[in-house]
Amino acid sequence: MEPDVLEHEEGLTPEEEDQSLYFIDGEWFESHDLSFTDVVQARMCPQCQDRLNEEVEERYPVADRRTGRVTYEVRRTKYGSRPMAVIRDCCARKSGYVTPEMPVLEAIFRILLANANQPMPLQHIREQLREWCPSGRCQWLLMPLDVMRQVVERDQAYGLKRYEQPDVA
Ligand SMILES: [Zn+2]
Q: Ligand 1 center to residue 63 CA distance, Å?
């Protein structure tokens, strides 16, 4: 059953909705037999996709349990094994990452990836979308915020979820 959008008794007030944060729930993909890594890698730029099978060395910090000293070790891994970092550092900075023709959910999904999937209010997502639409006339920018919220809330393909903030005591 679709909840009545005008019914606020059990839902959030408009003020609370304005503060709602959204993120991509990676577990949603796994529970639908999809690989979140594959889905994210598909949003990389062509140059990065060409490098996906390349072996690279990655430095990572290791803390000594007794002394607490942090040293760096090197491990070999596949390029793009942490695809969100690649998108943030490379692909999201290239033209064509978000285009006016993209469906609104695809554009929102890509903005969240470009921010390393940090939960964000829709207004902030929209401000970043504006940077991808100098004319201001892109379909996803012309969409009223409350309509955009309904589209995100009804998403069935991108794992978009409202972020439940832990209660601060
Ligand atoms: Zn790239």
A: 31
